[in-house]
Amino acid sequence: MTSQEAPPRAVLSASLPPQPHVLLVSAPLQGHVNPLLVLGRRLASRGLLVTITTAPDAGLKFDHNPHGAAADDGAGRGALRFEHLRGEGLWAPNDPRYRVADDVVRHLDDAAPAALIRRQAGAGRLVTCVVANAFAPWALRAAAAASVPGAMLWTQSCTVLLLYYHYFHSLAAFPSEDAGPDAPVDVPCLPALTAGDLPVLIHAPEDFVWRQALLSDIRSLRETASWVLVNTFDELEHTAIEALRAHLTVLPVGPLFETEKNDIGSGDECTAWLEAQAPRSVVFVAFGSLVKLSRDEMAEVAVGLASTGRPFLWVVRDDCRDDLLLLPADAAAAIATGGGDRGQGGAVVRAAARALARRRGCFVTHGGWNSTTEALAAGVPVVVYTVWSDQPTNAAFLVGACGVGVRLPTPATRGALRQCVEAIMRRQGAVEEGEEMRARAEEWKTKASAAVAGGGSSDRAIRDFVGAVLSDGADKRSACNCFCPRVVQK
């Protein structure tokens, strides 16, 4: 090699200290991957190398390089690397079980993330910290076995985590499954709840795979996770956060979605239609990435939306669109795309990722936590139609603690949906109620924006977490001491 030639890249890399590297691991569910992606970008923008992984071929919608070769040059500037989580000796890479989330949770074990950690080290990207979502308990076990610090990203509310923690550790008395939905729940530091408000997995069958994964997560948190990062913000759940800090090192880092992006994700035609509507006039309807309404429910929603006389934007996933073709004539006519001279009518689309930021009037939602935090951060009142998981608890939180919504009774009827929308959109004498909800929603929008802004409560929590990862050689005890509540809330 002449004096004019640059040394090989490998030689240069060997002469530099390894870049702190965070490995993000998720179960293959869209609602779990989305907040982890946002967290990853925020960590990467602060100087960390970040790799995100989940099982392949799971129907997830995000741009990635299946071979993990992308974004190395942009790491530390908000870019992410992607590598698929493989079953190692258990499954072949094209095994059809990868396409079924239950099978992935049931059969992927510590071997897959452990092998991924070894591969990163072999490639010169020594893993400094593993952050895993809930429902992937094998990831934090593998990190502990490799002596790598671990953190959990809890993608539901801190209230729900506090309920699960008290239930699975027998720290409070809970009503039995047959006590009835109105039986009171008495957990310290939480607002009044009833048995009907509890997250569904508390009383799910013990052999249900998702309950088993949750049980493993909750019971091992103190041993496997140095930190629990929660997709919430201090101003939203201060009391629950403080109560949980008696047991775990909790850092509120949310809301975790891309507030700076307003892309609709449904094409120019949808964008133009939405922008043509009057401010605060559109009813936005979306039931998440998993909830599947029955055909009867879809028909009631369609006619109920049309009966409000308001323009609406309804997100219907590809796996639900065949049911639209089989709706009764009145329901099919109700959802015909159009506008009319006064902008009435509706649009049915496959995706509308940032629609809450445009022409917001109200949000008809299943009450998943991602949708809950996005509605609060957008300042949009909600109509909540719950189905399972944490949704009943979130609905009680939105309606009771936050005062920004109404619940749509189950099963949905067109009349009940119309009344709920009108209570928010100031029709038929509900002016005072609707105005108060809208004012409270705007207050939550201001608080959420302040939390993620520079110096806000969530921004400080992410800054301190990154500081711990960057501090080479800090032991687990000193890292935990860095995150005492008084430091986080300075």
Characterization of this structure:
The chain has 490 residues and is of the alpha/beta class. The chain contains 19 helices and 15 strands. The strands form three sheets. A seven-stranded parallel β-sheet has the order 3-2-1-4-5-8-9. A six-stranded parallel β-sheet has the order 12-11-10-13-14-15, with helices on both faces. Helix 6 runs parallel beside helix 8 and helix 13 crosses helix 16. It is globular, with a radius of gyration of 23 Å. It holds the Pfam family UDPGT. InterPro entries: Ribosomal_uS9_CS, UDP_glucos_trans.
List the helices and strands and how they pair.
Blueprint: H1 9-14, E1 21-25, H2 30-44, E2 49-54, E3 81-84, H3 101-107, H4 111-122, E4 129-133, H5 137-145, E5 150-154, H6 158-168, E6 184-185, E7 193-194, H7 209-224, E8 227-230, H8 234-244, E9 250-252, H9 268-275, E10 282-286, H10 295-307, E11 312-315, H11 321-324, H12 329-334, E12 346-349, E13 360-365, H13 369-378, E14 382-384, H14 391-401, E15 405-407, H15 414-424, H16 431-452, H17 457-470, H18 476-482, H19 485-488
Parallel strand pairs: 1-2, 1-4, 2-3, 4-5, 5-8, 8-9, 10-11, 10-13, 11-12, 13-14, 14-15
Antiparallel strand pairs: 6-7
